[in-house]
Amino acid sequence: MITVEEYDPAWLERFQALRDEYEAAMAAAGVPVVAIEHVGSTSVPGLAAKPVIDCDIIVREAHVAAASEVLVSLGFVPLGELGIPQRWAFREPTRLSGTNTYVIVDGCLSLRNHLALRELLRSDAALREEYSAVKRQAGARAADIDEYGRLKTGMVQKILAAAGLTDAERASIAGNQVPSHADLPR
């Protein structure tokens, strides 16, 4: 079973603290950042979610390595793209457990995916409620996080279509070869 909770306003406060820390560290290292975005379900008021804060540190492609080095200096362990082009994942240090932080290239499809989901769910109450129900059911049924993701795929594709992503873009997202969580280094 996967824990899916009702929306908690404290999630925004947690993101803001993370953003402040990341902005300060990037600025101190001279790494230009386009933006730091709160993405994922915890970024949508009223949406049920796993209580994990997702942050996208958006940079131009030329600054990916430098931004990644800053995260390593903060205690993160680089995991690579994990099957999602132009988005680099990191295992968080213990002090930041319950977060997912990514370095992501400005304008890439994975960023457009994150922002399209967030913006549409913020503005469409009916889709937000439908997705919350799917997430609750998936959380109750799933044996692990990988199954939880698969159980939500149809709804995510519906949201992305409603947000205007093309058939080709949605097929590309669905075709990402993401490794099982069981195969990731811990």
Q: What order do the SSEs take from the amino end to the carboxyl end, as H and E?
A: HEEHEEEHHHH
- Return the structural class: alpha+beta
Q: Which descriptor suits the 3D outline?
A: globular
Rg over CA atoms: 16 Å
End-to-end Cα distance, whole Å, is 20 Å
- Counted by DSSP, the helix tally is 6
The number of distinct β-strands equals 5
Task: Please give the largest β-sheet.
Answer: 5 strands, mixed
Helix content: 40-55%
Mean pLDDT: 94
Query: Which band does the percent of strand residues land in?
Result: 15-25%
**Spatial strand order of the main sheet:** 1-2-5-4-3
Low-confidence stretches: none
If you had to describe this structure to a student in words, what would you say it looks like?
- It is a single chain.
- The chain has helices at residues 10-28, 64-73, 109-123, 125-141, 145-162, 167-174, and strands at residues 35-39, 53-59, 77-80, 87-91, 99-105.
- The chain has 186 residues and is α+β, with helices and mostly antiparallel strands.
- The chain has a five-stranded mixed β-sheet with strand order 1-2-5-4-3, sandwiched between helices.
- β3 and β4 (87-91) form a beta hairpin.
- α3 (109-123) packs across α5 (145-162) and α4 (125-141) runs antiparallel to α5 (145-162).
- The radius of gyration is 16 Å and the shape is globular.
- The two termini are 20 Å apart.
Features of the shown structure:
alpha+beta; 6 helices; 5-stranded mixed beta sheet; 186 residues; single chain; globular
